[in-house]
Design goal:
Blueprint (H helix, E strand, L loop, with lengths): L6 E7 L2 H12 L5 E4 L2 E7 L2 E7 L8 E5 L3 H10 L8 E2 L3 E7 L5 E7 L5
Parallel strand pairs: 1-4, 5-8
Antiparallel strand pairs: 2-3, 3-4, 6-7, 7-8
Length: about 120
């Protein structure tokens, strides 16, 4: 089995500058690296990250799921940053909400109930 080092979710966008500004707002900082023109990367957890890449044709058709420790805290933080969250859906064993970038890519935040009924 291969030994994996990092995992990046790639979100294609049509307007790179607008997307970077939007992702900076919800992540709370500039990209960790911009390895080439039209690409910005943020490490968001351990060896996992998000890459925003200028690629207009598939822009807006991606989804990334991020598991969080506290969904209410995440929603509050996003709201403070001016990032609109969708309604919180509670399925008992998980709760989730999503945000949508300017192109329509979805970022879903999930909280997993440690003791589901």
């Amino acid at each position: 089995m291969p030994r994996f080092k990092d995992v990046y979710a790639v979100l294609p966008v049509s307007d790179h500058a607008a997307a970077v500004a939007w992702y900076e707002r919800w992540i709370g900082r500039r990209p960790d690296t911009e390895p080439m023109e039209g690409v910005a990367e943020w490490r968001i957890a351990g060896s996992a990250g998000i890459q925003v890449a200028h690629d207009p044709e598939p822009a807006g058709k991606s989804t990334v799921v991020i598991v969080v420790e506290d969904l209410d805290e995440t929603v509050g933080d996003l709201t403070e940053r001016g990032v609109e969250c969708g309604p919180v859906q509670d399925f008992g064993f998980v709760k989730l909400t999503e945000i949508v970038d300017p192109d329509g890519n979805k970022v879903t935040f999930v909280w997993e109930n440690p003791s589901p009924e």
